[in-house]
Amino acid sequence: MLTLQYLREQKEEALNRLARRCNKELEGFVHKALELDIEKRKILSELENLQAEVNKASKEIGTLMRDGKKDAAEAIKTRVAEIKSRTQDLKTDLNSVDGDLNAVMYQIPNAPHKDVPTGKSAEDNEEVFSAGKLPELGEHALPHWELAAKYKLIDFEMGVKITGAGFPVYTGAGARLQRALINFFLDMASEAGYAEVIPPLVVNEDSGIGTGQLPDKEGQMYYIGEDDLYLIPTAEVPVTNMFRDVILDEGDLPVKKCGYTPCFRREAGSYGKDVRGLNRLHQFDKVEIVQIAQPEESYKVLGEMVDHVKTLLEKLGLPYRILRLCGGDMGFAAATTYDFEVYSAAQDKWLEVSSVSNFEAFQSNRLKCRYRKAGEKKTELVHTLNGSALALPRILAALLENNQDESGIAVPEVLVSYTGFERIEG
RNA sequence: GGAGAAGUGGCAGAGUGGUCGAUUGCACCGGUCUUGAAAACCGGCGUACCGAGAGGUACCGGGGGUUCGAAUCCCUCCUUCUCCGCCA
User: Fold this and answer.
1) What is the per-residue pLDDT for A296?
2) Is the same domain home to A129 and A89?
3) What's the pLDDT at A95?
4) What Å value separates CA A204 and C1' B79?
């Protein structure tokens, strides 16, 4: 969440930035939070003063008891009892105000960066880059779900049988291609200096809160009630949470991690042709890159991550474009997000395959991930960033569709050493 | 899954109701000494919030309770270790 300090000290800027989300409620939330903050601090200072009195009196009692002056001790006790009843009230008030304050703060999304366009929906996103030539397929061109069936790459029906819709079974060359992509992405990330981790696929509540999935967005995650755990919607959650409650040294930054994991999303409310084939799944594979950076560096780091994803798409030979998301289309925790979309020719659709975001201090404030500049005593919140590099299913969809001809599908050259075959044929 | 033991500052390790936010050692930082280093000696050495400051408050695995007062007592959860069972 945003820090109260930021709202207090730079309220106008905060409101300005939040306005880019086109959510009329937000201004009210900010004012509410600041009011509650003042109230909280008023109660807190009164409570702490009383607490100090009690502490002092308790010490006196201790001294008196040791000296055997029981009567004098009893006299102080009655005085303390009065103060205590007052502190009880204050504690109740404090809890209530603090609860309200937290509730409001949890509803305030990250403040978009100054360069983020104001807007309500995907229509207001801004295309900032595009590359690659859109392939022109002949009449014979098939959408990927038909190609998957024709060449026995993916068995959607089998997935339905053993689990349900959105859980495909990759088979034969399809499975092999999937694994090739994972290895290719991981190798590229390693080369770019990201240290590989294999995190748990299931996380606890604290982790969900740390990266912003909880509270309020439980509906997106699969929940294991018996153990109070959540299936991860992205490796971002476990990997970023490795740094929860951690104080780093300046010299540790930037931290660069990457990880491959399956991702699980309930995608409640999705329907129709959006979910056809590989377009939207409940379980999918993704390689994620994560960085933890100094605040002054974070936008440079964001650019570096964007460049990394560009490289991947170019090596795969996929036409793509980059969108800077508008305020209204960005995720709750993000300050800036670039979405990457590849063109999937047979569907004639742009498919989102990566989302690269700078969360600034929004996540680190929840995570309590701080760093200390060399020689300084004070700690400061780090900036966290992450991006998909890349999400597999839509990449696979685009590869199948764009690289098809009448007799088969060509495997991109960079993948051949991983797949062991150059073409998929009937 | 069953039985037992334990969780204290970066690490080690004291502390079982009253100046304990916490003895001590190591590590670390600064200084003295030294040609330099080591050793020795002196000093410093957790986090967060409130406060202009002095200072105050909170935190000894998490949460709750008893008490004027809790690291210390009680309840509960979590984790680790040992033994048994089961198992890739």
Assistant:
1) 93
2) no
3) 86
4) 14
pLDDT in tens, A247-260: 998 888 899 999 99
CA dist A15 and A36 (Å) reads 17
Find the domain containing A35 and state its range.
4-107
Q: Are A372 and A340 in contact (CB under 8 A)?
A: no
* Region A276-297 average pLDDT: 95
Q: Does residue A116 lie within any of the structural domains? A: no
Residues A8 and A69 reside in one and the same domain: yes
Alpha-helical segments (H) within A108-204: 144-150, 156-162, 172-191
A38 touches strand B (CB under 7 A): no
Residue A379 lies in a domain: yes
CB atoms within 10 A of CB A300: 12
CATH of the domain at A49: 1.10.287.40
A115 lies in some domain: no
Neighbours of A269 (CB within 10 A): 6
A43 strand B contact, CB < 7 Å: no
Q: Does residue A112 form part of some domain?
A: no
A390 CA – B48 C1', rounded, Å:
38
Q: What is the 8-class DSSP label of residue A201?
A: S
What average pLDDT does the segment A146-162 reach?
95
List the A135 CA – B61 C1' distance (angstroms). Answer: 59
Q: Total domain count for chain A?
A: 2
Here the CATH number for the domain that contains residue A235 is 3.30.930.10
Residue A52 Cβ < 7 Å to strand B: yes
Does strand B come within 7 Å of the CB of A99?
no
Task: Supply the pLDDT for residue A136.
Answer: 86
Integer distance in angstroms from CA A367 to C1' B63?
20
ipTM: 0.86
